Amino acid sequence: MVNLSGMTINVILKDLICLKHDSSFTYRRLSGIVIRPDPVIDPEKSPGHWVNGSTGESVIEPFDVEPDPVFPKTRPVPTGLEWSNRFMPGSLACFTPVQGSESSDEFISKNGGTRVVHAMVFNWIHGMARHNNSLLSFCMIIHLEDRAVPCGASFFDPAFSSGQKTLPIDLECPLAVVSDLNSTTQRIIDYRLPPVRYMRTRPSAHRVTPEYIFKYNMAIDRMKRLPADDPRNFMQQANIHCAYCNGAYDQPGQGTLDLQVHNSWLFFPFHRWYLYFYERILGKLIGDPTFALPFWNWDNPKGMTMPPMFVDPKSALYDEKRNQSNLPPAVIDLGMTGNTDPLQVVTNNLTIMYTEMIRGNKTAEDFMGNPYREGTEPNPGPGASERGSHTAAHVWVGDPRQPSSENLGNFYSAGRDPLFYCHHANVDRMWTLWQYFLPSNKVPDKKITDPDFLNAAFLFYDENKQLVRVTVKDCLDNLRMGFDYERIDLPWLDYRPPPQTARARVIKTTSDAPLASTVFPVTLDKIIRVQVPKAKKGKADELLVLENIEVDTTKFLKVDVFVNDEDDNINELDKASYAGTYAQVPHKTNKKANKTSIRLKLTDLYDDMDIEDDDTVLVTLVPRHHGGGITIGGIKIIEAPATKSS
Description:
646 residues; 11 helices; Jelly Rolls; 3 domains; alpha+beta; 4-stranded antiparallel sheet
């Protein structure tokens, strides 16, 4: 373990490549490099020498630093491809194993006697290139055959005009994808949805047949066996999520402002396209165009345990990095309350689903997430489903034995668990249900017509390894995309909490609580209760707003919100006073702190309790995480804006 620029790192670097700022790049197969403190440069050797950091032995033949390193393997940049100059200034610096060793644990460095590491190490992970006037994102990694390749799918359109960023090394997300930068597959084409000849019906993971499990296992196994430079390879696909969910890239023309597909209205569209191509790749690998991913229906009591097919250690669907306490028959706790009564957990889960799908939303953005445009700070605000059941399932499965709750419990590693895609199939199912099957009187207008939303674009590799550009507007109809979901009962659809009638205790508690204006901003490391003035007296169409929520993105954070709660049992959510939640999956970015906001509809909540002519309500905030990490800038109640009917 070594501390670099104030950042503690304990990680094995694999397959890194060295970059130079001119028209060439140099690379070498690297394996098993461990960063150690105190790298040593032999001052008696030429500046071009590489030396073993412990022994001082020469690792490779000396070479001149200028004009171009003579390394074991060097070749010019492919025609028409121009590297960005956004790498750290200074001489070339690389890691390489000791000669003849496949897994050296020695740190190698060269820079004329200067200790080289700090942020330069990170810059070898992400890069930028321009090809035929189209900016592409690149992860500079070398695979087993010693070729330099671009990484994964790009994000947004135009793509990443501001280049790579420095990231914590322990993300380990970029991998190789294709072996030939001049390949025709590197030409980006605009994707056109093919005619739907076979409707792929995604089944409930708890209801699949042995034949389906065999086929699914075979598909994942074949994906894992693909060459490391194949963009359809299991780890390549997994790292799409890592690259675009951890602040790896800057917004075009916005300096160092992060790109992020979570916590905004891009959450559902990005993941729908992600699963779309993942599913088609699996189908092609087994020669079955009807193959469809399963969905983990954690919204139904019969599906509230980890699907059995994912816990067989001999299966390709198995991942050892899961919370061992939450394996079947443990019931998923979508509220992360820690309640040990399975029946109460199920009841809580159904209440959560009703709240985030029906009761808590006033507008489309309340469900989908807040607008995210060029120049917008990342994490403008997650929608009800994303910050609720979606986040809980991630964290509930993640392994607490791992340093960052890998795999499913952290954005960078989530795609490495096959259960991720099954989980997100159900997340996508929630979007489909909300769009087409839920009562429209709660949110009359469910369409977002903003061009910045509809025209947002992503790049993915399709099942034929072709790099394609897709847009949000083309993924709004799942049937047009050729997939649907098995019909399953929705027990939460009518699971409205029982009315709250008692007022005496609420009035007494309210009289003892301070006004919100005297408490906020506040770091939420314990339960707090405050009085919040209403916009109007009595029952009204109002929203509760938690604003300027500043979070440490590296931590799991969750805050439940109650209004006029009549008891102190915070582990029971099946009551009228439960208003909703804010939660986040841990992820790592350069800028650990982010600000966001959420709003919760109070209209139905007021209908379920007797507030008479009250001009204030009692708001209780209950942190479900441990310690700090979240500061809430303010809390207020506003009149709900008018919505237009469909």
